[in-house]
Fold:
Amino acid sequence: MNRILLFLCTLWCCTTFAQTHYPLTLTINGKPITIAKKPRRIISMAPNMTELLFALGAGNKVVGRSHYCDYPTEAKSIESIGHLYAPNIEKIISLKPDLVIAATHYNPKSLRHIRSAGIPVIEQPTPTSIKTIYAYILRAGVIIDHNSEADSLVTTLKSTMNAIQQLHPKITHKPLVYYSVATGRSGEFTAGGDTYLSDLITHCGGTNVAQKVTGWQYNLEMLLVNNPEIILGDSLIYKTMMSHPNYQNLKAIQQKNFIIIDETIFTRMSPRLITSGADQLFKIFQPTLYKELHNDKPVKTISP
Amino acid sequence: MINPSKQFHLKTFVALIIAYVFFIPLFASVGSIDISVSEINAIITKNIGLTFSSIDYSAIHDTHENIIMNIRLPRIILAGMVGAILSLVGASFQAIFKNPLADPFVMGTSSGAALGITIGLLFGFNANILGLSFTTVLAFVFAIATTLFVYRLAKFGSKISTTSILLAGIVASSIITALISLIMIFNQDQISNIILMTMGSLSSTSWNQVAIMIPLFIGGSIILLLKANEMNMLVMGDHDAHSLGVNTEKNKIIILFTSALLVSLAVAASGIIGFVGIIIPHLLRLLFGPNHKSLLPLSFVCGAIFLLVCDTFSRTLLENSEIPIGIITALTGGPFFLMLLKHHKNRLI
Structure:
């Protein structure tokens, strides 16, 4: 009797948690979207979605990717459908996808075009916190019926974040950090207090200079007044800040605390943000505690 | 038409210069960080090397000094220089083309310079000879070529009508904008620089830029200011000017080349900023008459003040981002331009 009950329980768990029933109807941005059958030919129109699909073991189902999808390396051999805001609609339709996923940077007009061809399109807005990223991963798992993979990925990510969280009481100094998204003539862009990146910086033991700002825009004068201890940015930003006289009085520049990071890890909202990004930030912000985090365990490095 | 007794308005000129000097600390005090005018006065006088007993130098905040001296002041000075150039060149163009709507923006001079700079950016020419970069030389060549092209296209006999100058200007500007856009498509990494240039922006100005520009700015401006008499003659018509002993062709060429060089400098520093060369000389002509002896120096100072005001709005209207200055001058100058066009319609077409 017990065995039968256990079997039924397992079956119930499998069907409710680990398997998606199609047709699946979702509400995204207030609009209902129906996916008739399990997607087998997916086009990813965003680098982070491509990374996520590969992380969920669905890389072999991706038949089209954006021009910018370069991770993992296997993604590069998939056919490109063009740029994020100007995708090649004819190419997309000719690839006969049964699901198109766009995220953060996309052109709503192009998506309407694709929908009118009878192809379901999922659009994913920019996550505002790490929690939203988990929710998006789980939702992607449901959509493509890779539920258990999504569950275990989120569990791994959460444990990485928890390991850092547990060291928080030992933090004595949270350095003032500025994450530069873009700099120079077009203005200063950073991760404001309401962004997932700010969430990550705080979580990894730093203080975000732009905590009080919302969105992504900042300005040079505020940067000079708040004078961060550490600046993070890609090599192009490094070049601009090192060569332009406006930045030479910044503490971080004078003390050579500009740390060049791989922006694809931080500005895409892929699982690498946590698996690799959180680790990197914690190492930069809290070098002594970082050793404790990895004390006996060998440091797992994930190649960018 | 020209009243020779109405000489140079010295008092007005001096008053405007004083106003400009007073505006500097006033406009430098606004920005995303509030810095008081008294602190700015202390910072500026300290950095010039002057000390006044009435100023409290202990109140200077290091970061504030950095912001004023390295970010706001060079920008304010550059805005003044660019405004002075555009306005002075506007007045000069109106004289040599004998057309009230001639200005570096309408005549395609600015767009031509922008195309030269875009090509320069593309090939990464950074070589400097006497502060004149190869990019600026390219800008100059294209500025001259475009202006001459528009002039030839618009000229019928000895006169150029308003309609033909506007049409020729539109055609030249459209072709150039298309070329710039084409270059942009092939060079995605330079897109933001190119967009900023076509909309006009004074952000990220440094003393380097000011220093590079100053020798040619002063030289070019003096040449134009000294041509006031010749411009007065040219306005009366080539024939009359010639009979008064003015070598019209030679003077036109000197004025045109100097103007194109100055506009190239301005576009290299700040991108395309329109309408300054139309609004300022016209207002001044209404107020002080058409004598170039006063029109040119007054245009010079008023252009500087006008662009300084516009740039202050450009960097302070929005909390964390800038409105490109070209948008502000177009929104204030555009309607004025249309009014002018309506006013001249009956007379010139």
In short: Confidence is low (pLDDT under 50) at residues 1-5 of chain B. Strands of chain B lie at 128-129, 132-133, 155-156, 159-160. The first helix of chain B runs from residue 10 to 28.
